[in-house]
Amino acid sequence: MIELTATGWALAVIAAIAVGLAKGGLSMVAVLSVPLLSLVMSPVQAAGVLLPVYIVSDIGGLIAYWRHANWRVLARMWPGAIAGIVFGWLTASIVPVAGVELIVGLIGLTFALTALLRRPPDGPPRPARWGAGSFWGGIAGYTSFVSHSGAAPYQVYVQPLRLEPLIYAGTTTVFFAVVNAVKLIPYAALGQLSPANLGVAAILTPVALFAVWLGVRLVKMMPQRAFYLFITWALLLVSIRLIWQGGAGLLAG
């Protein structure tokens, strides 16, 4: 079993809650999970611990939403996403821990700044094109492999398509469920599905499943704009910390 302090376990539980809330409908919350856990372990190990939690949490979303997915959009994004995962796998062994911390921090910072500054898409809905779908799918696959944070590039491509809310939810759920399942292969090859990591994941999974149930109810009760603003600023602060930590590590090395 991984040895964690009380603070480490508290951050792990919060990370699992973030995963569950995201699968329950508060989708952006998931971007906090790996950055938070990376404060007490390496980002690669944090992603390995949380991957089984993501996959179990995906099951409920698939049951609810798979019939509503837009398979045309998925067909244009999945090839790029798989290529992005493979690229992350091939480069994982040559990037030092401090470098991964820096990458995770930069991904989180980019996501937070994009969420704070981005304007809603205007104009008519865009068609689902192969080139853009493959490109943004590739970026989503890579960032998802590194830190389970493929939502930002995914949204860059999908939001201008103006999908109906139910179709958007179904497409998003199915896309990331398949991406997470594919990641099992490289994560296992990198030794991140070890008994120690799986033991922590087993403890965190019930927490995440409870948070899925909670998220479904919170979606109907709370002002989401204020909640997402809080999450975005929290991600911004955690990401800055990781950038500082990773940059200092690279300079010291």
What report would you give on this structure?
The chain has 253 residues and is mostly helical. Helix content is 77%, strand content 0%. The protein is built from ten helices and no strands. It has helices at residues 6-23, 33-37, 43-65, 71-92, 97-117, 130-147, 151-158, 165-189, 195-221, 224-252. The two termini are 29 Å apart. The model has no long low-confidence stretch (mean pLDDT 84).
Q: Could you give a quick summary of the protein structure above?
A:
The protein has about 250 residues and is mainly alpha-helical. The chain has helices at about 5-25, 35, 45-65, 70-90, 95-115, 130-145, 150-160, 165-190, 195-220, 225-250. The protein starts with 5 loop residues before the first helix and ends with a helix.
Could you name the ranges where pLDDT drops below 50 across 5 or more consecutive residues?
A: none
Overall pLDDT level = 84
Q: Radius of gyration, Cα only, in angstroms?
A: 17 Å
Instruction: Describe the sheet with the most strands.
Output: none
Share in helix: over 70%
Question: In whole angstroms, how far apart are the ends?
Answer: 29 Å
Q: By helix and strand content, what is the structural category?
A: mainly alpha
| Beta-strand proportion | under 5%
| Tally of DSSP helical segments | 10
- What's the helix-strand series? HHHHHHHHHH
**Total beta strand runs:** 0
**Any idea what the shape is?**
globular
